[in-house]
Write a structure and sequence with these properties.
The longest helix is centred in the N-terminal third of the chain and has 23 residues, at 15-37. This protein is α/β, with parallel strands linked by helices and 268 residues long. Strands 3-2-1-4-5-7-6 form a seven-stranded mixed sheet, sandwiched between helices. The protein is 44% helix and 15% strand. The protein has one domain: Vaccinia Virus protein VP39 (Rossmann fold, 3-Layer(aba) Sandwich). α1 packs across α2 and α3 (39-50) packs across α12. α7 (110-118) links the parallel β1 (100-104) and β2 (123-127).
Length: 268
């Protein structure tokens, strides 16, 4: 309870600093878990055999830095199972060639730099409150020679109010903060944008219902649900011990999770 009080006060007084500290703690915990469970060792074995380059999907050819491949499990991204429920949408976004793409919650830069390679004329702005993630995204951009990626910290409603441009694609995975950000009553510019929003019902109860109600009059709304992936679909996993294959490509969600794709409804 005391920790929650500290978090609440921190978010009210200094939200960006508070999120930076919370993100760093979370990143450290994830790294420790991957080391302890053997996922990192399995990833190292995979990289030694198949390299640091994504093998399939819309971002095939994306090459990770040595440091990120050394510090984090990359198997699901490299083999092409990671969030592959979104791959068709990614191709749709690439075909559209939006002038600006905002990636809110870049993690290691998979989407920010992946899109940058396929959309070289698009201005990509990535946000993450975690320093490790920002550095990893910047490294990934440099590794792949993409000069159209800018990496920032927190994406606030104020930033969007000042900078959001029409015909922007917003790609969001912000751990419940989507309840705050995606409010067209406060940010009417959102009505001129398309959005892919990963939903986080645990930290933001009722967020799917809220997002649907806010945009049902202006956008067509599609949904996919993330699920588990079958290791047998990815023959490259044979280099990993059988008992580790499912874990190596697990996304650690603890259950189904929904993602919405909101596209502006065309006027008749």
């Amino acid at each position: 309870m005391f920790k929650e009080l500290i978090k609440k006060v921190g978010m009210a007084v200094a939200p960006e600093l508070t999120l930076e500290l919370l993100s760093a703690r979370s990143q450290k915990l994830i790294i420790e878990i991957e080391e302890r469970t053997g996922m990192l060792a399995a990833s190292h074995k995979f990289v030694a055999e198949h390299g640091r380059t994504v093998l399939r999907g819309p971002f095939q050819g994306l090459r990770y830095s040595e440091r990120v491949a050394r510090e984090r499990n990359q198997v699901h991204r490299l083999v092409g199972s990671y969030e592959n429920e979104l791959y068709a949408w990614c191709e749709e976004i690439i075909e559209r060639q939006y002038p600006v793409l905002l990636d809110i919650g870049t993690a290691d830069g998979f989407y920010a730099v992946g899109f940058a390679r396929r959309m070289p004329d698009t201005r990509i702005i990535g946000f993450d409150t975690d320093r490790w993630a920002r550095e990893a995204t910047q490294e990934l951009a440099e590794e792949n020679g993409t000069g159209n990626v800018e990496v920032l910290s927190m994406c606030s409603p104020d930033w969007l109010h000042r900078n959001l441009e029409p015909d922007t694609l917003i790609f969001s995975d912000c751990e419940g903060y989507e309840m705050v950000l995606f409010n067209p009553n406060l940010l009417p510019g959102l009505l001129e944008c398309d959005m892919v929003i990963e939903l986080h019902e645990r930290p933001a109860p009722g967020v799917e219902k809220a997002i649907r109600e806010r945009f049902e009059g202006s956008h067509d709304i599609r949904m996919v649900t993330y699920g588990e992936h079958d290791p047998a679909e990815f023959p490259e996993l044979e280099v990993i011990e059988p008992e580790m294959r499912a874990q190596a490509i697990s996304e650690g969600r603890g259950g189904p999770q929904n993602v919405l794709f909101l596209t502006r409804r065309q006027a008749n």
